[in-house]
Design goal:
248 residues, Arc Repressor Mutant, subunit A, 2 domains, two-stranded antiparallel ribbon, 63% helix, elongated
């Protein structure tokens, strides 16, 4: 009796617990991503890379969207775990982490493997991909929780600080890319990244001051213009116009 390819591959496949099998498939997805990019990730490609049946991939990830989300969550978890380890290593003797600074996050970001760096960049930039919404929200929450109080110390400009933090993270990824390309050495990158982080409170203060400036407010003034009647006599009419001091 002829044995089907699926049955034969299942017979050769070593047994793994569900969590271990899931991680094996995510690791295979990472290799596919490294070789072919996001477009190369398919159920067939992951199954082939992992040496398992496509059915098994579907058993763990119901569809491609679920696989995408799980893969990017996995990559992001690696980065966030590294940040936590760095923070713990630099905490005080009693575990006090009140004095920690974003530089540890910066260092871990710059030390990310190239493929993980690409994955984090996609989480940030590919806003059209709804499968990345979950990892993106998680990354935003991490950045705001850890860095927000450092940037917006009195909590008076939450919208500006969130925008600034996301811009900062994009800039740090750009610095990391320069290191990967060999156009900047690692030590220079750390100095530059740390300098950017340290300047964030000053940048926020400038942005807040500009947004609160009278130059951006709208003023109302009254002007009197002549009105000519049919009989040729002239009267006056008071009109109200809105001007912005920016335009004068």
């Amino acid at each position: 009796m002829q044995v089907s390819d699926t049955a034969e591959s299942a017979a050769k496949r070593p047994y793994l617990r569900p969590a271990e099998r899931r991680q094996q498939l995510l690791d295979a997805t990472s290799r596919v991503f490294s070789d072919q990019g996001l477009a190369g990730i398919t159920m067939v490609a992951v199954a082939a890379e992992a040496g398992v049946s496509r059915r098994l991939v579907y058993d763990h990830f119901g569809d491609l969207a679920t696989l995408y989300e799980a893969f990017f969550e996995d990559r992001l978890s690696g980065y966030l775990a590294a940040v936590e380890r760095a923070g713990a290593a630099n905490s005080g003797p009693d575990g006090d982490r009140d004095g920690e600074t974003p530089q540890w996050d910066v260092g871990e970001l710059l030390d990310l493997p190239v493929d993980d760096l690409r994955a984090v960049r996609l989480i940030i930039s590919d806003t059209a991909n709804s499968e990345l919404d979950g990892p993106r929200r998680r990354l935003r929450a991490h950045v705001e929780q850890r860095w927000g109080a450092r940037v917006d110390q009195d909590g008076s400009a939450p919208a500006l600080s969130r925008a600034l933090l996301w811009t900062l993270l994009t800039a740090l990824l750009g610095i990391a890319d320069l290191v990967v390309d060999g156009r900047l050495d690692a030590e220079q990158a750390r100095v530059l990244a740390s300098a950017l982080v340290e300047q964030m409170p000053a940048v926020l203060a400038t942005a807040r001051s500009s947004s609160d400036s009278p130059a951006n407010s709208t003023t109302v003034r009254e002007t009197t213009v002549p009105e000519t009647t049919v009989t040729g006599t002239t009267s006056t009419e008071t009109t109200t116009t809105e001007d912005t001091e920016e335009s004068t």
